[in-house]
Amino acid sequence: MSLTLLSPPAAEPVTLAELKAHLRVTSDDEDALVTGMLVAAVRAIEARGGLALMPQQWRLTLDAAPEETLFLPLSPVSAIDAVSVIDGDGDPRTVSPSLYDAVLGAGARIRPAGPWPLPVPKVGGVHVDFTAGYEDAGAVPAPLKQAVLTLAAFFFETREAAGETRIYAVPRSVDALIAPYKEARL
């Protein structure tokens, strides 16, 4: 099973201006640096929480059709864009939506409702394309935005590399802020 980004988010949930205000940075001299830290903080928050903050398209590649419920690895999911199997010519063959049930949002999942066509390649022959992320920056919960600001500020304040005598850890408040949005998997 692998996850591939098909279409990245068009914007970040926090603007450069919002982050600069949080950092109390008034000049434009470090805009490139601050922007890089903003993007890094967003991606780190998404990875830590199994989240997508802004709309983005992903492909989950499987070796075979799921026999039971398949939980999608990111949250929230707004759409199942396509489910397909790869045929003998290497072309995707769409699985009819009538052959699976889908639950969107947090804890998104699909469950087969009938037999799917068999993929010809034994490895990576099933694709589940989906859109994940909140509708727009205004829909991203405030605690997740605060986690982004907190982590970006941490990156800004601790720019030098960690060494033998100095090890950096993500501030505990970041994990506390994203904890309510992480999906518990048993």
CATH superfamily of the largest domain: Phage gp6-like head-tail connector protein
Number of domains: 2
Number of helices: 4
* Alpha carbon gyration radius: 20 Å
* CATH class type of the largest domain: Mainly Alpha
| Number of E-state strands | 8
Assembly type of the chains comes to single chain
Spatial arrangement of strands, main beta sheet: 1-2-8-4-5
Largest sheet properties: 5 strands, antiparallel
Shape: elongated
The CATH topology label of the largest domain is Hypothetical protein yqbg
Could you give the order of the helices and strands? Answer: EHHEEEEEEEHH
Calculate the terminal CA-CA distance, rounded to whole Å: 18 Å
Helix amount: 25-40%
CATH architecture of the largest domain: Orthogonal Bundle
Q: What is the beta-strand fraction?
A: 15-25%
InterPro entries: Phage_CHP, Phage_gp6-like_head-tail, Phage_HK97_gp6-like
Pfam family, one: Phage_connect_1
Protein name: Phage gp6-like head-tail connector protein
